[in-house]
Amino acid sequence: MLGPLVNAAVIVVCALTGCFLIRGIPGRFEEIIKKAIGLAIIYVGIKGAMDNQRVLLLILSLVGGSIIGELVNIDGLMNRFGAWAERKLSKGAAQGNGNFSRGFVSASIIFCTGSMAIVGSLQSGLQGNHETLFAKSILDGSISVVFGASLGIGVAFSAIPVLLYQGGIVLASLAVRDLLSAAMIREMSAVGSLLIAAIGFNFLSIKEIRVANLIPAIFIPGVYIALEQIFG
Fold first, then answer.
1. For residue 38, what are the CA distances in angstroms to 32, 42, 138, 194, 198?
2. Which of 9, 35, 127, 168 lies 20 to 30 angstroms, CA to CA, from 26?
């Protein structure tokens, strides 16, 4: 749970910093920080992918996972869920709760619905590798400072759904970790690391990749290796 706990704590601290100490951050600072974090995320992703020992399986997993993800349209489902949650949760803002509701809702959706939260939490649970969630913490922290300065203390409370959401994924992956072999975890994590690198490219605005539609690729190595072990 270290990754989710650090992520939630950073959101709280940075949101409070933006709320009480910083006002009117120029947009150019937000943009350059985003690019710098994008470069760091690409490095973390490529570094993790280098643990792969079965390149062909990695390629087949990405191709097969992308087909499954596009058929299901995970990216579209996540975007629709985010829009639905914003409509439901922001009703209070329309009734006079002001910036608190807007800050809470906006930050919660941004921090929870990204594929980085899912992949990073899986890596924390399966490998005990928190690098991705630490990188996400830096990104969320920079966003929290900006949102806190403009939308107020409600942004800090978005740490609660972030902790529950990411912590739930970590605990679920811990529950099945004993059922997975070291080879399964290694290859699944390598695929997940490449998805992290893809998120970094999105931050650099090089070419938008619907990373959420690649999430099924993470699980294909586990299924393949399990079948390989069963059928020899």
1. 10, 6, 11, 13, 9
2. 9
Among candidate residues 121, 151, 155, the one with its CA nearest the CA of residue 136: 121
- Give the closest residue to 104 by CA, choosing from 80, 86, 119: 86
**Tens-binned pLDDT, residue by residue, of the chain (232 aa):** 888 999 999 999 998 888 887 665 666 776 777 788 788 878 878 888 888 889 999 999 999 999 999 999 888 887 777 677 667 665 655 444 456 777 777 787 678 766 778 888 888 888 888 988 998 898 888 888 877 877 778 888 888 889 998 999 899 888 888 887 888 888 888 888 888 888 788 878 777 788 888 888 888 988 898 898 888 6
Q: Exposed (0-12), middle (13-18) or buried (19+): which is 50, by Cβ within 10 Å?
A: exposed
- For residues 121, 10, 155, 39, the Cα torsion angle rounded to the nearest 10 degrees is -70
Quote the tokens at residue 118: 């899912």
Could you give phi then psi for residue 210, rounded to 5 degrees? -80, 80
Between helices 2-20 and 115-127, what is the axis angle to 10°?
140
Report the SS3 class of residue 152. Answer: coil
Calculate the dihedral angle through the C-alpha atoms of 169, 170, 171, 177, rounding to the nearest 10 degrees.
110
> Diameter of the chain by CA atoms?
64
